[in-house]
Design a protein that fits this description.
There is one protein chain. This protein is an alpha/beta fold and about 525 residues long. The protein folds into 3 domains: about 1-25 and about 80-190, Pdz3 Domain (Roll); about 195-350, 2-enoyl-CoA Hydratase, Chain A, domain 1 (Alpha-Beta Complex), CATH 3.90.226; about 415-520, no CATH class. It is built from 19 helices and 23 strands. Strand 11 and strand 12 (about 200-205) form a beta hairpin. This is S41 family peptidase.
Length: about 525
Amino acid sequence: MNKKNYLWPLITMGSLAAGIVLGGFFTKNGAPFSVKEDKGRVKLNKLIDLIEQEYVDNVNTDSIIDMTVNNILAQLDPHSIYISKSEFDEVQNVMKGSFVGIGINYYVLNDTLAVVKPLPGGPSDRAGLKAGDRILYAEKVQLFNQGLSNDSIINLLKGNAGSKALLKVYRKSANKFFDVEITRGEVPLKSVDVAIKVNEKTGYIKINRFAETTYTEFKAGLESLLKQGIEELVLDLRENGGGYMEPAIQIADDFLKGNEVIVKTVNKKGNVKITKASSKGLFTDKKLFVLINENSASASEIIAGAIQDNDRGTIVGRRSYGKGLVQREMYLGDGSAVRLTTARYYTPSGRSIQKPYNDGLDEYNSDLSNRFKSGELYSKDSIHLADSLKFKTTKGRVVFGGGGIVPDVFIPLKNKHGEDAIQLLMKTSLVSYYVFQEIEKERSLLEGLTPAQVADKIYKDPKYFNELKAYLKFSGLTFNLDRHKTNIMFYLVAEYTHQLYDDNAYYNWILQQDIMLQKISTLK
């Protein structure tokens, strides 16, 4: 068993570049710009020239420049960042909401590229690729038993829109080989995971980031739920690290009545811009709940703050990340860019929810671990914000600034016997890869079952728990898994459901034990 194999969810251009997206809240009107010369800049240019011409060893001066830019920005604030040329396309694709490729999730299984899923609506989906297919050759280049890196595989499969990818595929379920020509094209990257009903009157929408397509996706989901007769909505912004400002404002607009303030921004010159709601909101008079946690940042906090300060709905969860700085993306002319903080934002009551960063980047980035240590994630009484940062909502309720949005209803992490750690474990690529291997052993059988039948099969047959336990032990994990069997089985079914079916089926399962949703049901 190769423990080094893991999921690369994107020919989709890789990961979501989490370090760049988390805490992101920015406008996208990047543009080239010119700067004046002065002695300091001349000195820096001269130093680079001297290194290139005179230094004893060959040096990659581009990397030195990148390092210098990063060091300069690090002196400003935690969210002014440099995006190198090599990172730029990936980051742009994530925020654009699509990329050009063939559109598959895959694992490298026993040194063979195996399709986990073709991405819905993408070129591979349209061409008929299926979960479990092995891609053996791409453009006559052998992919199996070659020890190819994921970068090498991606380079073979990606290309310009409209170009052709000729693949040789083995379909294990039918025991046949075939050739397929896939026309590379736009592959959607959803920012709204689901818009479903969780009961007869409650709609649920999960947003994972704020990209160019987010409001369009959100609006379509909300309109569908309204046609189904929902009387209340749960907007889930947990783990949503932010993104573009515009879709967050558009979504808040749909919840607020005309002329209610959504957000205020103040720039270096003290210019204040106040953004107010229109009179065109789609959901202004029904119950609204917004779910947040410690990783809900920036654009997510704009929505939560606007809802809380206008007394429009109930914020449920844990204190949010605390990011109140606005970045503008500016291009540097060589394919790289900076996101430079150009303003601060404030909630309608006047709160800045930016957490302090005067003690340096290391301390700033230690905030989450400090919340664990202080007990804040397990008890609302452990949240300490200065009394001097009190503000009032439109109805006179006291709210606090200075470090995230404190929810109206606090929901602690599960800490009983380490259940929170088990939940994190069961959502890792380690478990996901294991489940894919197990599905491959009986795919034809499982794909003929409904989600409920798959769950029943897994719960009733002890081999599923016992074999997972052996796998995790082999992988070096020393948890007392028997103690957590109930929790493990629930999340094991969730992973099977996620790989075998669509996101709706996955969320219909996973939300059954969501403690925030359970709490909401008691607030009515």
